[in-house]
Structure formats: structure tokens, C-alpha cells
Amino acid sequence: MSLSTSPVKVSNKRKLTPDDHVSHPRKHLRIEIPSTIPTQITATPSATTSHSSLFSATSLFTNASEDTTSPSIPISRNPALRTVPPIPGLYFTPALELPAELAESITSFCMSTYFKNPAVNQVMLFTRFSPKSPSSLPPVLIDLLNTLSTLLKSHIPESTHNLLFPTTPTQARQVILNLYTPGEGISPHVDLLKRFGDGIIGVSLGSGCVMRFAKASGSEIGDSGPTRTSFLDEPPPPVDAPSTSSEEAENNDDLYDLYLPERSILVLCSDARYKWTHGIEKRKSDFVAHPTSRSLNGSPLSTSSPSSGARWIGRGTRLSVTFRWLLPGADIVGADEESSSENECESTASP
Ligand SMILES: O=C(O)CCC(=O)C(=O)O
Ligand SMILES: [Fe+2]
Q1: E strand or H helix that includes residue 272
Q2: Which ligand is nearest to the CA of 280?
Q3: Is 87 exposed, middle or buried (0-12, 13-18, 19+ CB in 10 A)?
Q4: pLDDT, tens digit (0-9, with 9 covering 90-100), for 231-240
Q5: Dihedral, CA of residue 67, residue 319, residue 327 and residue 191, to nearest 10
Q6: Contact status, residue 106 vs residue 321, Cβ threshold 8 Å
Q7: Per-residue confidence (pLDDT) for residue 31, from 0 to 100
Q8: Which of 118, 189, 259, 300 is packed most tightly, with the most Cβ within 10 A?
Q9: Rounded mean pLDDT of 126-133?
């Protein structure tokens, strides 16, 4: 199917509920941004579960709660990092956050435009690329891109900044919006190799969560064709079992958990994009290292153990906005690929 002939695509896949204990694909809404906006959306998905009870009149998202006690799962696991792990091409600066006002505008716009129907929890926006008439994104997402460009300028290498924000773009962008209720996650995966280029930016809105990075094996990083979805077909781990990040992760430089707070910005390039998987465990709360205390001269104060001062942080509803480059020809999507979700999210009632 060519995206140019089908501006809106909604799959028939079932919407998840936080109480599901099995893995299901996410419900997609696929939208091509025409050269003029606003876009008309005419999706009529059939599922009936609702996110709306999570939203109050004054705030779109419930606040994630910080708690130092475990929600009854005494797992001896290392807390997630608050600072970037040593993965080449992974950029994350804890102090760098989007302005609250912009975050609120994006959230309100996306919720009222794309996620009005509670059955939809994933939306893809595609710009077209033509040097003569490049199509654009909704203004609030253009604002987001401009703000990201300014904020990231002094935090990533110049070559990476040029890759993400070229003066004269030569590729179309795809924006994927994922809405997660507490308990939902996304399977470990490498973003599709044949569809997306290098240079991915991810923004977390509404709630933080832990993202897990794991070194991909050689066979997993090959690009075996258009239906390839990398890691998405793996069965989910048992709901309450300690995951591989516990003892195994100690002294393990193949796996890292990183806490992405609300309004944080993540960049994946080179190795981080191609040689490591990223995913979000289906949990309702995350075990996270204490924010590192800093001495007066700015150097981190040492702590007695990795878990010292760590805390459980409850997840609220999270909206992620991910920008990727569409590779040439990636706007032609095969029918078989349509049926295999490119990003399957999982949902359980586990914490
Ligand atoms: O929600 C996120 O931050 C990650 C989304 C993601 O990895 C994807 O859509 O490929
Ligand atoms: Fe991804």
C-alpha cells in the first residue's frame, strides 16, 4: 500500500487493557500529513476500553508517584540509572527537559486530536518529502522540533545535531506517538532497519518510565526483508519474574535500565540505534536510583551501594513522541508488513 493513497490507516487489532496478561499488538492509527494542515481524521476503531478515566479535568495525565517502598515485589534488582549508560550513540542529559508549557501544549493537542478515541494508543504521522513542496507537521510538533534543536545543540556532537536537524532535509520524517497506560510497555526491538534511517529522537510526556537497552546479537541486527520486525515476536517474560536486569545485570555491560523522566529527551544514533535493542517493561512502577547528590563543586557524591536511596516510582499515563527519518522507498508498505506491527506494546497488571 502506498501511503499517498491512504491518508488514514486503522488496523483491526484489538486494543489492550492494563489487565491483559498476554502480549497484543498496539492499535494503530496511521496518518499522512498533507501539504496543508490541519489533517482530518476519520478513524472509527471498534474497541471500547478507555484511557479517559485517567485524566482529570485539570490535567491530562495523572501524576506518577514517587515512593521509596516497593509495591510488594521484593525483587533484588539493580535500580535503573538516572544518567546515560555507556552506549555509543546514546545521548541523554538528565538536566535537559522540555519547557512545561510546551509539553502541556503537545499533550493537549495529541490527546484531543489523535487519542480522542480510547481504542487508539499509537499514531504514526508521515510527512512527505519533495524538495519542491515538503509537507509539514502540525505546528505544535514543529515547535517541538525547533525546541529540541535548540536544547540539544550543546549536548550532542555537531555531526549528530546535523543528522537530526539538517538545514536542508533530504528525507521525510515519521513521528510516532505512543500512549501508555500504567502497566503497558513495548517489546525490546531495534527500529526497522529498512524503513528508518539513523538518528532517532524520543520525548517522554506525562510520566517517566524505565527504558531498557540490551546489546543485540549479530543475527538480530541483520535486515532480513520488509516484514522484519526485529525483536517484536519474542514472547514476553513471565509477569512477575525478576527480569534479567537483577543479579545478572550486575557487572553486565550488555544491558542497562535508564529512567526517562517526564519531559526528558533521548537520542539514539549509530550503535545505540543499530546494535542495541530498546524496550519498556510492562510494569506499573519502576525501581530507580536516587537522583545523584552533587557536591558544591558539581562532582557526584558516592553512595554506599547501587540501591542506596533508590525508590519505586509509579508510572502515570505516558505519551512518547518519537521522530525518525523515513528511508527512501519506505513509504511503500507491503501488505504482509501491515499485519505485523512494527512496534507491539504489551500490557499487564504487573507493577
Ligand atoms: O515509547 C517510547 O519511548 C519508545 C517508542 C519506540 O521505541 C518506538 O515506537 O519504536
Ligand atoms: Fe523504537
Answers
A1: helix 270-274
A2: 1
A3: buried
A4: 333 444 433 3
A5: 30
A6: yes
A7: 61
A8: 259
A9: 73
Instruction: Give the pLDDT confidence of 41-89 residue by residue, as tens digits.
Output: 323 232 322 333 223 333 445 444 544 444 544 444 789 999 999 999 9
The pLDDT score that the predictor gives to residue 128 is 76
ipTM, 2 dp: 0.99
Q: For residues 229 and 115, which has the higher predicted lDDT (pLDDT)?
A: 115
Nearest CA to 317 among 139, 147, 115? 115
All three cell numbers of 252:
553486565
Q: Tell me which of 322, 346, 347 to substitute to probe ligand 1's pocket, judged by most ligand atoms within 8 Å of the beta carbon.
A: 322
* All cell numbers assigned to 313: 516510582
pTM of the model: 0.75
- HSE-CB of 120 using CA atoms within 13 angstroms: 26
Residue to probe by mutation, ligand 1, list 280, 283, 326, 342, most atoms within 8 Å of CB = 280
